[in-house]
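Box S1 | Example of a co-folding query
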Amino acid sequence: MATTDKEVNELIKREYEHGFVTDIEADTFEPGLNEDVIRRLSAIKGEPEFMVEWRLKAYRRWLEMDEPDWAHVGYPKIDYNAISYYSAPKRPEDMPQSLDEVDPELLRTYEKLGIPLHEREKLAGVAVDAVFDSVSVATTFKEPLAKAGVIFCSISEAVRDYPELVQKYLGSVVPHGDNFFAGLNSAVFSDGTFVYVPKGVRCPMELSTYFRINAANTGQFERTLIIADEGSYVSYLEGCTAPMRDENQLHAAVVELVALDDAQIKYSTVQNWYPGDENGKGGIFNFVTKRGAAIGKNSKISWTQVETGSAVTWKYPSCILRGENSVGEFYSVALTHNYQQADTGTKMIHLGKNTSSTIISKGISAGKSSNAYRGLVKFGPGADGARNYTQCDSLLIGDRCGAHTFPYIESKNKSAIVEHEATTSKVSDEQMFLCRQRGIDPEQAVSMIVNGFCKEVFRELPMEFAVEAGKLLEVSLEGSVG
Amino acid sequence: MLSIKDLHASIEGKEILKGINLEIRAGEVHAIMGPNGSGKSTLSQVLAGNEAFAVTSGEVTLNGENLLELETEERAREGIFLAFQYPVEIPGVSNLQFLRTSVNAMRTHRGEKEMNAAEFMKLAKEVSRQVDLDPAFLKRGVNEGFSGGEKKRNELMQALLLQPKLAILDETDSGLDIDALKVVADGVNALRAEDRAIMMVTHYQRLLNHIVPDYVHVLAGGRIIKSGGRELALELEEKGYGWLGIKEDAAEAAN
Ligand SMILES: Nc1ncnc2c1ncn2[C@@H]1O[C@H](COP(=O)(O)OP(=O)(O)O)[C@@H](O)[C@H]1O
Ligand SMILES: [Mg+2]
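Box S1 (continued) | Returned holo structure for adenosine-5'-diphosphate
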């Protein structure tokens, strides 16, 4: 690892040093974590009593937990008392006043991604006039959603406005004691998204954090909760695809999905946090817990992820298939370059009868990166007739990177059927020669070959996302040849 | 157009081309014949710029320009096309996407506007019919699961699409049945043009019944040991390579 403990802690600290407003006491917290900090955080957010207790319970549990070290990643130890757990939004006068003041490298990337100018400003943290386009965008979309009865708001609002739903489902899929990072998130989560789709409703549009006004500034500890009531359907797109290069931080999010009888949730992510530079300096530590509970019969939860960013990724979007005939899917593209490390995969926990799951994982490693797939397929005693199909492919670019596959299968039911296929291939010299002989640039050739390799996953993404994901691969692979 | 002077090339320290001299002018068709392992594919690949081979000495110019200084993709954009003897598969990348990327790379190089998907589709369909390939092949992965004959026709289709200055066809005729051979021969004849040269590597003289070459060269042991007109091919067919003092078996054993 090229970064030292000190540097990382500095980087983590840097965010709050820049971000907060020193003269307004209540807007910023001193670094450090204790019960008092949590109480203050909850009070500032105007949370009801149950929420404070919930957070404190999580905190006490977290104190007893150890940071996991089993993943195939290495990073310097994080000092959790060096982090500030609440910081007010940046003051306009502290932000860059125009694009001229923004890192040109960053702008070049935005340009390549085809992000409109006003979006670029917003993403780069430029103090644009408060009347964003997205305000009108957001209100346009609010109407059809309200008509359909869909609730789509920040989790902070939900805690205040829909306490029954939050109390019933928050932590029902990822409990406090689930893992170290989830425990920390439960104690200190800053904001996130809440979605509730009522019975029988097909959500009239794709929901996305991109359309939420505060999306660009969601915190390091996001919390997302999506509930699809009986017979409903929702597709949720997460993550702005733009690289947040100015932020070096620990990102420990929790996402919980709940699907009741005959409900379907499709959750797509394109993750492109700052991966660190070509020498492995900086970048986000992305330690995320994502889990869906298919608790109703015939329910379905489908995860699609394209992971190209972050210095270290530790992420296993999972499905608990409790309902009879429930279905879990996981489609993943994980790309690592330079010194990036990814340990990602899924868990499919089959509990109900005739449950089925599909796992398609595509890992791409370039540079000196390390890319691991880790998957667990588990069949409980009641999972009669359950099935899983896993396909796990790795593609290597160059010969200094690594790909690893760790499939685990646990079965307590003899009738369960598992199929597993795995391949490892390289972008071959012959393929490159063919492309170049046809006049295609080496970089474009690699990106085309990699896109072809990822096709089965990309076709699961909503159209616009698939296009962006393709472009993103191209940008992320820059400098991987030659 | 193409001028090769005393070209030596090796792979993994083993010298394969041992002094090739060849002049090809615009409008001409040259057939390169010779036993297996004599260096025909090596010559083709070296001209196209395959970096697996090291050029140790000699000179190659294309219209007076030093070809050896150019990157593979630059040579391609200058109009060098190679139809591969063993085309490689690119899984998941559709033929259509691959070809459009290629055509647009060439167009961009020439300062022309890129073709959009619809325009390109129309063109690609026409050309695929010309080589008797079902346009459905355009949607399949590049060479993915193609039969030997389909791969060859796919290569020829690309030559027709890209309209190169110098087309190097490496055994585009091998492994084809009579009907397919006729299709390929028609395709090559369609490619013939005043301002285009064709270098056709073939193991068999039978193709030359359909495509009449201007010159025939026999390559053996990394050297051109005999050149002539089309009658040389007929003579070779009649008398075999033994006639030129080449032991065909020995050449193959060297593989
Ligand atoms: N990639 C390679 N590695 C090692 N030897 C090679 C390679 N390619 C070709 N050769 C050798 O070079 C010689 C010429 O091969 P080639 O050019 O393919 O002949 P031809 O096309 O005339 O049959 C053969 O001895 C062959 O074994
Ligand atoms: Mg050959």
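The helical segments of chain B are 40-48, 72-77, 95-109, 117-130, 148-162, 178-191, 230-239, 248-253. The first strand of chain B starts at residue 2 and ends at 11.
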